[in-house]
Write a structure and sequence with these properties.
Layout lengths: L25 H7 L6 E5 L10 H11 L4 E5 L18 E4 L6 H5 L25 H12 L5 E3 L1 H5 L5 E3 L4 E3 L2 H5 L3 E3 L4 H12 L13 E6 L28 H11 L6 H4 L20 H6 L4 E3 L3 H6 L1 H12 L9 E6 L2 E5 L8 H8 L17 H6 L2 E3 L1 E2 L10 H4 L5 E2 L2 H14 L6 E2 L1 E3 L13 H4 L21 H11 L6 E2 L7 H4 L3 H10 L4 E7 L3 H7 L4 H17 L5 E8 L6 H13 L7 E3 L7 H8 L20 H11 L7 H10 L30
């Protein structure tokens, strides 16, 4: 039975009461009557006391448990002084880069430094270092070497195991080792952080806290690696078998008896590890898998080591696939990955918060404003969300390029309608500048609110990467009624003039509920609605795990029909990704022609950026498709890596801009598509109008 998040006996410091804002200076601590902080949270973001900012949410949660929490926001990392500003914490330092990965925050997809930072006052750049979690951890260790360091947030989550790093173009170790941290909390951190704080307050040492879900830690070898033990381990580890050696059925049969009872799942050693894909196949049908049932008796899986994945891209892809197959909190097993003479242990993901728990988290006494020290400075990230309300967490779409599944997971955690309505009223009453318009009711997606698996037994064993690809699982609820009811209730609140939906709508899911599309179109679109078909080529979409373009076009028909019936002129704003793994020049040309045919001139264009441990990043680095079994006969993936090809793919999306025409012309000549160069609507780009030579296209 999972302990209720708010059932702990509060720490003695509860007597100090609730702080107007969590302190960022000694003077603020003195005003609260504090002689010290129990926990100090270090963040790369400006401190905004709002539940959309991770440090505010975790800080207020720990405060509700009775702990005194201080915030060190965007410290000067060039010295240790800022890290000592609040003194020595009694329990631990909690470190995060902020709401974004610091490398994604600082660099574009072309590895160029960005000129602004939305999470900094006045959007000023350069207020956080590269790999902020590593740097902050080092400075905290310098400041107070005996204080436990706990990593959290998106940057730590995506680097909990050996991972490909796009910015250095190499495989790096788990961030736990490089940061010399004591514990890493990945995903939704509430359960783990509360438990850790209370156990440390009871004088338990950080080294003994190895049994919490959603955490990773380091364990050293003692003599023979086979003598490793773990609270959930049964039997001794078996050496990881190279996938190239596991395709022979006779070899597999010989291994079978030896493998039972140890921590290497049968599936991880089999060349045709399709058994691990799901108890339901990719089409949602039930499959009987004797291999899976025997493998589930084991509760620890040894991944290929850091040294192995660094040297062998096949093993890297294998490790990536195995880790994704262990993302369902109801059946996931612990992962262990050797790094030299140490092991990184990754416990199963945290169990989702109940609706009551999530409500309590979002109803904590946030001021909903930036810290007073920022005065009148504008923080763009706050401006974006200050009139919005988060109604749920998680995403079961499973897009291969998206880090949400790696971080928040596939299980949808939803707030109650009453809690959401209470927060809307808080926005109305407390947020300066509110004009009656709620800018968004959403989350990772707009329309997964209260969506659940209809079969609890099936959900407890499912290992699918996506509930929506290649088609919607028959066990997935597509009922949008609770969301429609929430929208209607929100609109009726006094002082609320309009409720807009700013989060992206998952259109394949929305197509299952035309009533939802009608409700959305009639009341909640401010002229434009964001959707993300990402591409139109089936080959590319299969690597993205996105539905076919026909599904998008079906949604577009319904959107236009209901807009016309409501007497409104409204538009869909489609998002596309250039240079995604699996994309060829021909695929991008096909997309450009589709845009031309539909008279679309998009401005929202993203070039694929490989972020750590996503499946698309595995494709980018290894050239192997981890969505399928990893063998020598496995599927290879075309990867547009070279800078010139990536520029070309982006240029195809922006075919209407004159600056892209020379590059496109050169590509069309190389592809033998001169018929697309000319003056007139039937052509993609016009002929050259100057004597400047065409730009040759190097394919590399």
């Amino acid at each position: 039975m999972t302990q209720f998040l708010f059932s702990h006996l509060p720490f003695w410091a509860k007597r100090f009461g609730v702080a107007p804002v969590l302190p960022m200076s000694r003077d603020e601590m003195d005003a609260l009557g504090w002689d010290s902080c129990d926990v100090i949270l270090v963040t790369g973001d400006a401190y905004v006391d709002h539940p959309s900012f991770g440090m505010a949410l975790i800080g207020r949660l720990l405060e509700s448990q009775g702990f005194r929490v201080g915030i060190i926001s965007q410290p000067d990392w060039r010295s240790v002084d800022d890290f000592m500003a609040l003194g020595r914490p009694n329990l631990f330092f909690g470190i995060t880069s902020g709401n974004m990965d610091s490398m994604v925050n600082r660099y574009t997809a072309d590895r160029k430094i960005r000129t602004d930072d939305a999470y900094t006052p006045n959007a000023e750049p350069h207020h956080r270092p590269d790999r902020a979690v590593l740097v902050y951890a080092q400075r905290c260790r310098e400041a107070y070497g005996d204080i436990p360091i706990i990593l959290g947030g998106i940057e730590a989550s995506l680097r909990r195991m050996a991972h490909y790093d796009y910015w250095s173009d190499q495989v790096r170790r788990s961030i736990l080792l490089d940061a010399k941290a004591d514990l890493l909390i990945y995903g939704n951190a509430e359960r783990a952080i509360v438990e850790v704080a209370h156990r440390l307050a009871k004088r338990e040492t950080i080294e003994t806290i190895t049994d919490l879900r959603g955490t990773a830690f380091i364990k050293c070898h003692r003599g023979d690696p086979g003598l490793l033990r773990h609270p959930r381990e049964s039997g001794d580890p078996d050496p990881f078998c190279h996938p190239r050696e596991c395709g022979d059925p006779e070899t597999i049969d010989n291994l079978d008896s030896r493998l039972r009872g140890n921590d290497v799942a049968l599936d991880s050693l089999r060349g045709n590890d399709v058994a691990l894909d799901s108890l339901r196949g990719n089409d949602g049908e039930d499959l009987a898998n004797d291999d899976l049932s025997s493998a589930e008796k084991n509760d620890v899986i040894r991944l290929p080591s850091y040294e192995e994945v660094k040297q062998d891209r096949v093993l890297y892809a294998k490790a990536s696939r195995l880790s994704y197959l262990e993302t369902n909190p109801y059946c996931a097993r612990s992962l262990v990955q050797r790094h030299g003479d140490r092991d990184v242990w990754i416990n199963p993901p945290p169990l989702p918060l109940s609706t009551e728990e999530l409500d309590r988290v979002y109803e904590l006494p946030y001021s909903r404003k930036p810290h007073l020290s920022y005065a009148d400075a504008r923080i763009p990230a706050y401006e974006m969300i200050r009139f919005s309300v988060c109604i749920m967490r998680g995403c079961f779409g499973g897009c291969s390029f998206c880090s949400i599944t790696c971080h928040e997971g596939r299980v949808i955690q939803s707030r109650s309608q009453s809690s959401v309505l209470n927060e809307i009223e808080a926005v109305r009453n407390l947020t300066p500048g509110f004009t009656g318009v709620i800018s968004d009711l959403g989350g990772p997606t707009a329309n997964m609110y209260q969506s659940k698996c209809l079969d609890a037994t099936c959900e407890s064993k499912c290992r699918r990467f996506s509930c929506l690809y290649p088609k919607i699982c028959k066990f997935r609820s597509t009922d949008h009624t609770p969301l429609i009811q929430l929208y209607r209730a929100a609109r009726k609140l006094p002082g609320i003039k309009k409720v807009l939906i700013g989060s992206g709508v998952r259109y394949d899911l929305a197509n299952e509920s035309p009533k939802y599309i009608q409700e959305l179109v009639e009341h909640h679109v401010g002229g434009y609605l964001k959707v993300a078909p990402e591409h139109i080529s089936e080959g590319t979409l299969s690597k993205m795990m996105k539905p076919s373009i026909e599904i998008y076009e079906r949604f577009q028909v319904l959107f236009n029909r209901y807009s016309q019936a409501a007497g409104k002129t409204q538009y869909l704003i489609p998002y596309f990704i250039a240079a995604h793994p699996g994309t060829t020049d021909e695929d991008m040309l096909e997309l450009a022609l589709w845009l031309k045919r539909h008279d679309l001139r998009v401005s929202q264009v993203q070039t694929f950026m490989p972020t750590p441990i996503t499946l698309a990043t595995t494709m980018y680095y290894s050239g192997i498709n981890p969505l399928k079994p990893i063998t020598d006969q496995g599927e290879s993936v075309t990867v547009p890596k070279e800078a010139r090809v990536r520029r070309l793919h982006k240029a195809f999306l922006l075919y209407h801009l004159p600056k892209n025409w020379p590059l496109i012309r050169a590509a069309l000549r190389k592809m033998g598509r001169m018929d697309l160069i000319g003056n007139g609507k039937r052509y993609l780009v016009p002929r050259e109008t100057s004597n400047r030579p065409s730009i040759p296209l190097s394919r590399g």
